[in-house]
# Entry
Amino acid sequence: MIEIKGIKKNFGKLEVLKGFDFSLSDGNITAVLGPNGSGKTTLIKSILGLVLPSSGEIFFDGKPIKKDWEYRRNIGYLPQIARFPENLKVRELFSLIEDIRGEEGNSEELVSMFKLESFLTKKLRQLSGGTRQKVNIVMTFMFDSPVYILDEPTTGLDPIALIRLKDFILEKKKQGKTFLITTHIMRLVEELADELIFLLEGKVYFKGTHSEMMESQNEDNLERAIAKILEKEDAKDS
Ligand SMILES: Nc1ncnc2c1ncn2[C@@H]1O[C@H](COP(=O)(O)OP(=O)(O)OP(=O)(O)O)[C@@H](O)[C@H]1O
Ligand SMILES: [Mg+2]
# Structure
């Protein structure tokens, strides 16, 4: 569904993505991992057309995205940092998004899943960090899409919200949805991801299942396997 060929992105002299291929398997959950600043958000924004790659091509359903912005309606996106006018009430924000999209969304199930009913009449500035994240998650899933791209979806969520979100994602996967998720929470990767892509220094350092990743480093814990890779790379650099 989404295919990336030879993607490169520089910000001035900084080469963030150094040319690699990447594709999302339909109906799978793919986790993109990598240390802070490794280019995960840049990759996601490139797929959404919010960042223009310096070179390379991105295809959605076989068509280059450059020529057609309609594909974006097929992607539910949860940004890592979402900013909206602080004086809007939660309910008003949902309506605003529906107006922009020209389509009625279904927020009820998600509002009840995260017990947000009493926050609907609160202004965004009054919300705690985790509650804001729940509101952002509601907006991501309000509209039915074949693909969901979630950039650090669990930021600030309490354990109950985290379990609800995981179950919700697995339910959507059962319905055939395709996911791209970035996270630093290895439990999430172990529990959800069919495949993981590990970005390091602008390239795909590893691609495979989490068990393959652990085997490759001779570790029985994903977090330790990743820490081992990073320590080896650090040792090379110094
Ligand atoms: N608009 C921009 N202008 C200049 N540099 C940028 C811009 N956006 C990102 N960068 C730089 O590109 C690199 C990759 O950033 P990116 O946000 O993609 O990393 P990330 O893997 O998502 O990190 P994190 O785990 O912290 O979310 C960083 O060095 C960042 O400072
Ligand atoms: Mg990021």
Observations:
- Helices lie at 40-47, 90-101, 108-113, 129-141, 159-174, 186-192, 210-216, 222-237.
- Strands lie at 2-11, 14-24, 29-33, 55-60, 63-64, 75-78, 147-151, 178-182, 195-200, 203-208.
- The domain at 2-237 is CATH 3.40.50.300 (Rossmann fold).
